[in-house]
Every structure is written in structure tokens, then in C-alpha cells.
Amino acid sequence: MPHSSFGSGDADDAATSAATHPPSADDASGGTGESPAPALLTDLYQLTMLQAYLERGMEEPAVFEFFVRQLPERRNFLIAAGLEQLLEYLETLRFGPRDLGWLESTGRFAPEFIRRLARLRFTGDVDAVPEGTVCFADQPIVRVTAPLPEAQFIESRLINLLHFETLIASKAARCVLAAGGRPLVDFGLRRAHGAEAGALAARAAYLAGFHGTATVEAGRRFGIPLSGTMAHSFVQAHRSQIDAFRHFVDCFPDDNTLLIDTFDTLQGARTVVTLAQQLRPSGKRIRAVRIDSGDLAQASRDVRAILDQGGCGDVGIFVSGNLDESAIADLVARRAPVDGFGVGTRLDVSADAPALDCVYKLQEYAGRATRKRSAGKATWPGRKQIERHRDAQGVLARDAIVLEEEPRRGERLLMPVMRGGRRVGPPPTLAVARGHAQRELASLPPRLRSLDPGEAIPVEISSGIRALARTIDGE
Q1: Which of 15, 42, 68, 258 has fewest C-beta within 10 Å?
Q2: What pTM was estimated for this model as a whole?
């Protein structure tokens, strides 16, 4: 473990630049206009605690763990996600001259503290469960070991990243289970809570098993397959529905999905049959239709019948409109002839469970284990590990939370991902994480794969952890 990055070093140039470069409107985006400066994406108390720690010389190694206290009412499990974005943040964490200048202008902080912030880098260790891993309450998903000021300062952004992607991946996984192998596409950008949320929701959903996204930036940034159709306005802008459909197929002969419910869904399906017949001599074909309103189960049956009777049995049916895992499960249970689903708002805001009760808590400082004992919010002390046990068929049977130093009895989930502020190896691709998530979902017992609340798997707190807690409580 390296010593604190606030150690000796010449920061005069950075400090001088901070003092002489006044903040501007561009500073909040680091001058790029893309996103706010990550160093300032924090809570004020992280900075006030940081100054106090540094003034007292409290820079010994600290161990923090990120975990979820309890699962939301309708969640049988969580899917860990967001680790890659966290590691990117830690690798690049630093205060630029404009950040320092703005902090100095607030008058809240000592000049020496501002100078020391100029040298801040993350130099610690990170252990984490791989993205896509099934997790449960109280289990440490990420463990950070670093000098106290560094480990403390990253709390707000760490929770911000891990919470959101884990929340969305867990919701998306339920949609995947409900869809039974049918394709799912993320449609949620327009209702997501901000641009970053829209892109990261697309990533989390794809990791959990979605097949694509309509968010173009997520395709560029993460390599997620793009999928989209057309808007009602496209149909309305043409003199007739058939003109709109023909125009679209002419532009995209190999990849087209026609939105048929702008006026009347069944008439839209008949128009598709007419156009398909007209297109046959040219070799062009209609790939799919989309229904976005009404009773989707009944509409899909009626549309399927019209298409089949018109010789368009190869035209798929894609549905959207306020879908979530429950609506998808209902369509599947009613045997609706649907070939794929577009899921938007209710996924990207995790409508039924919009937040996780997750925390990042100090478990050890300067070699001394510690724990919080607040009523209803007590924590287990020490550096912990998750041990997973499966049955002979590979199905998840039980978990144990143990101290890192306890004898190994099962598959250990927390893996080293960063040492001394540097990754231990190349990051897994999103495809690898997605494959891991698919195997994890397949390993769940049937009661946990259900959308209904199921009996949780046993998660044992080891005797070593309990003994350590009693020792601390008796001090």
C-alpha cells in the first residue's frame, strides 16, 4: 500500500495557476462541454473531512466497503454493475487548475489544503466482484483500501456510479428473465435523469442481457448494437401512411421496422400487406412492424392474423409502450405473438424501485477494525469476502460473508482489480461481463428467477465476523 498521494512534491505551478485563473462558464465541463469535472462531482463534506484529516495527519490505510443494506421489496437479487466506470474515475482523478481556482474562490478552504489537492491521485487498492455477478444484501460488492483521505474522498462518486448501474442492471435482468429469450431493446434515453444516466442505463441493460439500445452515444461509447424504428411524426409528415412506409423502406431496405399505430393499428397492418405486395418485384422487404399503444396482446394477435393472411408471415412484430418486466411477463403468459420488446421509461428510472439502500462504510483504519452501531444501520466490521456455494448442478445454493483472513471454504467472489492506483490487468470487455451475467442468471434457483418475491438464499455471517464485532462492542 503506497503512502498518501498528498505527500511531498512541488505543486507551486498548479497552485499559482489555480489562484490566477478565474472560474468561467466552461469550467464546470472541464472546457469540453461534455460533462462536469469529475473531481467536483462530490459532496461538500468530503472536502471538509479531507481538510480536517490532512491537518491532523490522519493518512493511514483505511478499508471501506460498498454494499446494499437490504434488497428492494420486489427484488430477489441484484446484478453488480458500474465497476468499469468507477475504475476509470479512480485512474483519472485529479483537480485541475480551474477546479482549484473555484474552490479557492469560495473562501471555505485553507490555502495549504488547496495546494495539497493539486497533488491528489488515487493510489489505493480495489477488490470487487466482477460486473454481472448476482449479489444479495450486506455483501461487499467493492472494497477499497487506500490512505484515509483518498478512500474517503471518492465515496460520493463511487456510490453514484455503482448504485445507478447496479440498479438498472438488476431491473433489466428481470426483463430478460420475463422475455424468455425474446430480444429486448433499451428505449429509455428521453426519460432518463440526464445524459450520463441515459448512456449508462443502456450499458447496464446490455450487460444484463438486453440485445440493443436506441441511444446512439451508447453505441459509440460502449459498442452496444443500435436498434430503432420511426416516430409517429414521420408518418404524420407524409401525405399518406403508405407513402411514409414506402419512403422508409426505400431508405433502409435491409433494416426497417414500421410503426403502424399512428392512426389505426389494424389498418396500418393492412397497409403493410399492400406495400409488401407492391415491393416484391423490387426484392425489397419489410422486416418488422411496431405497435406502441392499446392492448398489446390483442393487437399483436390481430396484426399477426392480418400479416399471415396477406402473405407476410416473415414480418416480425415488435411492441413498446410503458413496458416493464411485469408487462412483458403478462404478454408472454397470454401467448401474444410478439417477437421483441422496446423497454424505456420504467427501465431507465427503475420505476418500481428507483433507489437502492446502498452505502460505503469504513470497516478498518490504521490496522484497527471498526464498525457502525447506529440503530437499524449497524455494520459488520473488518475486511470481508463473499464465499459462494453451488450444488452439484452448479445452481447457487448459499453464500457466506467471511473475514478475508478466514480459511477458504467456497468460491471467493471479490477479486483484485486495482493495486497502487493501477489496474491489475486489461479491463474485461462489456461482452465478457454480459456473458458472465447470463451465466449468473442461469445459475439462479427457480424461486429467485421468478418475478414474485422468492425465499432468499441463505447468506451466513461467519463466526469470525461475529466474534470481531463482539470484541469491538466490548472495547
Answers
A1: 42
A2: 0.92
